[in-house]
Amino acid sequence: MEWLENHDYAELNATKAHKQNSSLKEVVLVEERSGADSRTIWASLAENGDLVISGHDIGPKVERYLDCDEYEFAHTIPFDYVLPFLKILGATKVTDVLTVLRHFGGPRYQEITDALETSKQSMPIRFWSHS
User: Measured in whole angstroms, how far is the alpha carbon of residue 48 from the centre of its chain?
Assistant: First the structure.
């Protein structure tokens, strides 16, 4: 008998249904390349419903400002504050969080940045960075 066929290990072989609020798991908000420099910013929903906006910058531009050539960051908006954050962003009719955020990507990303700064005054948004 194979170990995966053993009833004692059945739970390891079982798949569990996971309710998705969105068909999207992640959306790219910014993807820029200029020579050796690159910047990627994306949004995703954590399993607990928190909204995470993450970024990764690489290249000489980063090195000029931070004395290293790589910078990563993430803003985490707790589940209970996701809809109020989107309201500050200007989205009032939300059926899919990531689809709404995708609308504010590219040249409109500054609106997300502005909403994050405004929201930090009244919401427990966690920020993480590493260089």
Answer: 13
What range defines the domain where residue 44 resides? 22-130
- Among left, alpha and beta (phi > 0; psi -120 to 50; other), residue 80 is alpha
pLDDT tens-digit profile of 24-37?
Answer: 789 999 999 999 99
Q: Which residue has the tokens 């985490």?
A: 76
In a domain, 8, yes or no: no
Task: Give helix 79-89 / helix 109-119 axis angle, nearest 10°.
Answer: 120
Residue 23 CA to residue 43 CA, distance in Å, equals: 14
Distance of CA 22 to the CA centre of its chain: 14
Q: Which residues contact 53 (CB under 8 A, 6 or more apart)?
A: 29, 41, 42, 43, 74, 75, 77, 101, 112, 116
Count of the separate structural domains present in the chain: 1
Structural domain includes residue 6? no
- pTM exceeds 0.85, yes or no: no
Q: Examine the pLDDT at 45 and tell me if it is beyond 70.
A: yes
